[in-house]
Amino acid sequence: MRASLSDQQLISLYLSGDEAAFESLLNRHQQQVYSKIFFIVRDSDLANDLFQDTFIKVVNTLKGGKYNEEGKFLPWVLRIAHNISIDHFRRGKKMRMMRATDEFDVFDTLPSDEMHVEDQMIQDQIHQDVRDLLECLPEEQREVVHMRIERELSFQEIADETGVSINTALGRMRYALINMRRTMEERGVQLTLN
After folding, report:
1. Residue-wise pLDDT tens digits, 43-78
2. Of the options 3.40.50.300, 3.40.190.10, 3.40.50.11010, 1.10.10.10, the CATH number for the domain spanning 115-194
3. I need a surface site. Which of 44, 139, 148, 188 has the fewest CB within 10 A?
4. Whole-structure pTM value
5. Within 13 Å, how many C-alpha atoms sit on residue 120's CB side?
């Protein structure tokens, strides 16, 4: 019977005290969520740990009444899984776990000028996060950020090009930064490699 219920219906049942409803949600989506994590970390033990962390965060968010992604449960969980996986590397856990059967490779311990795969993934995620944050801004704020950062225009040049005063251009940039910080806090976004 539960198989015919939507994710939203199962969430409602779970929030009203039906623990088995969450188990149904977990069973329904565990393979996709685990696969997403494993694709990023490439280690089954670590993927299992991060999978558990993902669902702990899901449970805490649901029980805290902070979930409002109606009809988008799986994409929301996949985003949490993705962020938790990337955060694992951001915390500096870049060295692979050594197992008794692994061979030691001295090159794994030498510093390298080349960007690690994990660092590149984090940098790519940071760029995507910034693009997502910019999309949340009102058009005039997004335009000022684009002109200042990408085109490297001065605030006077921005004011001249957009036909506003320099104080308005500065104000738009200030509000863009405030809005981006607020959105970062709401989403738990971290824009650093470490």
Report:
1. 888 888 898 889 888 888 888 888 886 668 888 999
2. 1.10.10.10
3. 139
4. 0.50
5. 6
